Amino acid sequence: MLVAALLQPTQAPAPAAPRYAVMKTDVGGGLDPAVGPQVAAKIAEALRERTGGEVISADEMIAMLQHEKQRAILGNCKEGDSCLAELANALGADAIVAPRLSKVEGALLLSVSVVDAHTASVRGRVSETWGGEPLLLLSLARPVVDKLLAGEPPPVGVLDVVGAPPGARLILDGNVRGTAPAGQMGGVVVGAHRLEVQADGMKPLTRWIIVERDQVLNVAVALEVDEAPFYTTWWFWTGTGAGVVATAAAVTGVVLLMGGGRTGVAVQLNADQVFAGAR
Length: 279
Prior knowledge:
- By secondary structure, this protein is of the alpha/beta class.
- The chain has helices spanning about 1-5, 35-50, 60-65, 70-75, 85-90, 140-150, 235-260, 260-279, and strands spanning about 20, 25, 55, 95-105, 105-115, 120-130, 155-160, 170, 175-180, 185-190, 190-200, 205-210, 215-220.
- α2 (about 35-50) packs across α6 (about 140-150) and α7 (about 235-260) packs antiparallel against α8.
- The chain starts with a helix and ends with a helix.
């Protein structure tokens, strides 16, 4: 039995989960720096959830690093700098995660990079544009981490738009994906998307949404009737045109009745002005 036990193949130990260190968020574009720690904390939370490994937050980094020089590195390291590798070695981390938050064309831009701790080379980079409620930006942490970990092809989810009138166009990030009722739309890349719903005679609806990996996102919409101002309707301009013609005819009639006197000439000029205005 001892020999049989020795002959049985031994299972290789499972590889240890990588250890990540999340830098403090670089906040620019005039945004409130107070949002930076919230973004970094959400990304660290998503990394722990998705990898099951150890994740060192920016606050934990400061507590672990003892020397003032290392504290300075923590605040000044940028993507691509060799000091990231030095920082990772000091922390015993396998990779450094560097988030950045800025403004672009009236929206928020969240960019997150993963830098290899040993080579200081960028393993992956994900950018997400968000034009919705600023507080909901934090919900992008999980999709961003999923993209960083998956690489190519990116992970996808499912979108289901309900409540749109039949025939309404469903537009995602500027591309028509179908018409209502479209049912569930699969293959939607995780992350932020701009959803538009357009239907004839209805006010268009725009909404920012966040799709998560292997999840169905149900979006309920209710379009409102587009009541155009009275002066843009066909019946208003038809009636106006008829009124102008009737007024011009009446003035011309006055001219014919009064003859070619001085008053008649003045009235004729007014009639010409009316026609000129109508044209």
